[in-house]
């Protein structure tokens, strides 16, 4: 065990040293640093499972992070940086899918669900207004403790359409 | 395939387990047949036989699970599962958790829990027309899980050559004790949903709901929901404690897959109350349950098939297509059945009016379902694009989910405050407005105060506003109930109130827990400090974030199953011990164990990112997140509140009334 004791550590230290030298390359203002972070959290490490390059310590992520820094230092916008990475690695690396092309399907679907669902709900609730509206309950009545069995009995007395073929609940288990 | 399943010579334990599974499968087949017979012919004897068949299935699957556990604990590497996923050197708790640490074992655990739930159901089912069909639906689920377990994903198939030691468990699962908790809770939640699903199927087939349908489905769903809630948050905690990124939720496909059933179930727990009170929304509720159950199978399919990229994805083997088949069956049969039969589940009452508690619950349902659709689309979109374009050319990250989840979450918090204020049936607009106004004023005031104190960001401000609005609303409602109670001279104070109406105050408690949780999510998401540095041994403290950080020592600890590098670091004078672990099975991979100091307001979180070969320095990442603990505590409150709603109300003491005809104290 002793011989390869710190092997893993050595490999990592090397990776870190490379990363650190890369990070040291271009000094940025705090605003630019924040911008780098904002952009980089939306760029995916191409060889990990669903991790942005800010969370990954492998070489390719370090390299890509350095790229982001250089481009931000050169004054390029987030949009330009995303376009650059998309051209190099494919749309796969964009964790914030741009709202264009087939991605419109992705961004539009929840909105469609919201709109469609809202319309259905509105029509359903509106049906009531055509029916005769009962008087609003007083607050005291509305606050009464609920007894589900009492409610069932009330419904059963009020309507005949309930389940008549039910042999009843007194059967229990043998 | 059958030839290969049993071999007594090479593995007695394996053969015993396999035989138990095959016998369980035989009883499941018989039970399915008997249940259907009992339903179609209204034959009580057949139904009774099906009911008893569940006992045999439970006993046999229990035997199989016991055999596998024994094989794991005895290091019997003649059993394939043990050879592939366990090793001698592991501590006992890891050997136990290995039962669900890989595919075959986790399917067996699923089958065992399902058999257990079916057994409990067989003892509580009432004698009515739903009984054979509810049993039948449970048997169909069992048929799938026991069938998969006994064939393509059998843990007991014999190994070709006997190994001296196993290959060991997945090291990521060996890194933290939470692995003993999170998967079991999740399976209890998933499997728990099969019971309300069975009741939904029975209601659809018979075209009627028995009088206790609502009570039974609500209770079972609530139990499953508590497990699901606890499991999802426990998974987040596991991620926080072991993955070293200081976060707890990454919108990973498999996290999403557990979240979709949660959303649909939460919607159901509210809309089923409309059915309970008003006799309406029956078919909608059945739909919700069918979809919630189908979504648990979808989750398992995503988890096991490897079609999505996820930290949870196991190598699937032949199981992916089998799960896809079952999912397709559930979707086609379940949704087909619901589409065909649900219209027969007629509502007794009139549709609700918008300004009523029903209206608020339905608006909440709308948001929950949209939320679920959003998460589902985000999860499946990359796979969809891959299917169309032939290559992985899309990723959906937190930016997409958060764009929708934050407004939807705020909308749900808004509805959460409105619901309890409104009476059932129909509210008087002016009364409602009078009740709502103070809450809105306090909410806006809280947000303004937070703004003055330096909080920026619409999501956080909105959460603060809605938190204050919800808490005040619940506080006022409780205060009013207490006042009425005093005026009516009923003793017992607050405790008496809770004992008489555990459902109402349980729900209030759960809502308070959700408010605490939401504040934790909002603040820890928005105000996270994150810095990296390398620290040399013996050097002066370094300023990092708001703290002075100093490396004290670096040492190594060898265990039979792996090695840990342990850095002792002082942060503002307080000692932290962060670890980097390597496990024997995966010598090249580092698993961090961050040192976390939990605080009521801020967590301090220290991760080792690398260590110097000579032991002179370490590089660390320091993360400070505010209010993370509120997520764990909030969840605990939610679960306690949900548990309280299951408690039977204490009988209201009837005060002496001269006529002797005291109506129940309402």
> Roughly what fraction of the amino acids of chain A lie in strands?
under 5%
Radius of gyration of chain A equals: 31 Å
* Fourth-tier CATH superfamily name of the domain at 8-93 in chain A: Cytochrome C biogenesis protein
- Give the class-level CATH name of the domain at 8-93 in chain A: Mainly Alpha
Q: What is the approximate shape of chain A?
A: elongated
Helix/strand-derived class of chain A?
A: mainly alpha
Note the topology.
The complex is a heterodimer of chains A (174) and B (666).
Chain A: H1 7-24, H2 30-40, H3 59-73, H4 78-89, H5 103-130, H6 139-142, H7 148-158
Helix pairs in contact in A: 1-3, 2-3
Chain B: H1 12-40, H2 44-73, H3 80-85, H4 92-97, H5 103-124, H6 131-150, H7 171-174, H8 182-192, H9 194-206, H10 213-242, H11 253-278, H12 282-305, H13 319-341, H14 357-389, H15 398-421, H16 429-452, H17 458-487, H18 493-500, H19 502-526, E1 529-536, E2 542-544, E3 547-559, E4 562-571, E5 574-583, E6 586-593, E7 595-597, E8 602-611, E9 617-626, H20 628-644
Antiparallel strand pairs in B: 1-9, 2-3, 3-4, 4-5, 5-6, 7-8, 8-9
Question: Care to describe what's here?
Answer:
The complex is a heterodimer of chains A (174) and B (666). Chain A contains seven helices and no strands. Chain A is an all-alpha fold. Chain A is elongated and about 80 Å long. The termini of chain A are far apart. Chain B has four domains: 1-169, Four Helix Bundle (Hemerythrin (Met), subunit A) (Up-down Bundle); 170-307 and 354-427; 428-527 and 635-644; 529-628, no CATH class. Chain B contains 20 helices and nine strands. In chain B, strands 2-3-4-5-6 form a five-stranded antiparallel beta sheet, with no helix packed on it. In chain B, strands 1-9-8-7 form a four-stranded antiparallel beta sheet, with helices on one face. Chain B is globular. Chains A and B meet through helix 1, helix 5, helix 6 and helix 7 of A and helix 11, helix 14, helix 15, strand 6 and strand 8 of B.
